Amino acid sequence: MIYADNAATTKMSETARNTMIKLLDEAWGNPSSLYTHGQKAKEILEKAREDVAGVIGAAPREITFTSGGSEADNQAIRTAAELGRQKNKMHIVSSAFEHHAVLHTLNRLKKEGFEVTLVDVHEDGIIIPSEVEAAIREDTCLVTIMYANNEIGTIQPIREIGEICRSKGVIFHTDAVQAVGHIPINVEDDNIDMLSASGHKFHGPKGTGFLYVKKGIRLTNLIEGGAQEKGKRAGTENVAGIAAMAAALTEANGKMEETSSYVTGKRNKLIDGLSKIPHSAINGDSSNRLPGNVNFCFEGIEGESLLLLLDDKGICASSGSACTSGSLDPSHVLLAIGRVHDVAHGSLRLSIDEDITDNDIDYIIENVTEVVEYLRGFSPIWRDLTEGKKKFIL
Ligand SMILES: *Cc1c(COP(=O)(O)O)cnc(C)c1O
Question: Could you give the residue numbers annotated as active site?
Answer without folding.
Answer: 323
